[in-house]
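re the bet — no i am not wrong, look at it urself. input seq straight from the record:
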Amino acid sequence: MHLVKNKTIPISFLLLSLYSVILVYSASFQTALVRYEVSAHYFALRQFLFFMFGFFLLFVVSHLNEQIIVNGKAIKWMYGVSFFMLLAVLFLGVTTNSAQRWLNIFGFMFQPTEVIKLLVILFTATYFTYFGKQIEKSDRPLFLYLFLLLLLVGLIILQPDLGTAGIVFIAALSQLIASGLSLRRIFKVILFLVGVFLVAFLLVYLVHPDFFSSTKMARFSYLDPFNKANLNASYQLRNGYYAIGSGGFWGSGFGSGIQKLGYLPEAHTDFIMTVISEELGAFGLFLYLSLIFILIKQAFKVIFFSSSTFDNLVAVGVVSWISIQIFFNLGGVSGIIPLTGVPLPFMSYGGSSILALGCGLGFVRAGERRMKKQNGEGESYAIQKKN
């Protein structure tokens, strides 16, 4: 038996961090110099620091004991923190681009919804682990969970942040389906949710009609971005098209992109995929997706082979979170779906997202460690060779 040390998750995280810092520098140096009048390395250096702290959190979280999270007090704590952070955003949040999503904490801009994605995943995994037997016997704790989840999703929608609301809801629903509920109960849940959303849509339309204002509806300009009536609303999307289209397979070369030079206002954040496509081409995007695939593959090992319900559900939640967010970002930038304003995981500039993702991978890594320990493999995968 040959033992091979498996450090796939931390190594992949470090490779993504290197890739991100390089691309953020290329996408942001003009913005840093001209718009913010700071050093050309300003955003890249901060991104490097975010990743280093994120890697530290990944390491710390990967050594946490499951019992610290799977208990009644932790369930209340995780939900309470999520609820009050969202209330703080609604009453004290900073508004940018017609959305109130940020908190200014001693000069540091913090986006609570990035942390709430992780907290909801942990809350869901803990809830279905801790109350598993009660949920098997009765629908009452199941529908209580749905009420608590929808309350958080509703608060996120009020910011408004439909992209994050969709990520949180779909990730939690994926965990619910993976928890072992029968098809009959899953169907009952789906009918309940459809009814809730129809009622909610009607109430929002009647009570808060400005939610459907021209500013909010401008996100649908992706359907016809070159129409004269949509030129202002689709400005960033059209310039993103130019960047993607000019990159080809290999790209124009690192640092030589044109659209980031004032044509794409958010080149280093939500639209960093266009910089990758223009400068590194389809190959650069393929490289990013390959690294993501490696992370997801490791999480699937926990999903299929771990005997821990908590670790299984956390891995399902993290995979859903990353996958859905990538789809929302790439789909919006390429014009497949409306723009949602969510960052590209592990690539877009932003500390809140990177730290939350680092913690999320830390929990997956912790599940991986426990899985190996249960199988008597310590820190290694066992590779058996037949003679």
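see?? The chain has 13 helices and five strands. told u. also The longest strand covers residues 99-105. so pay up
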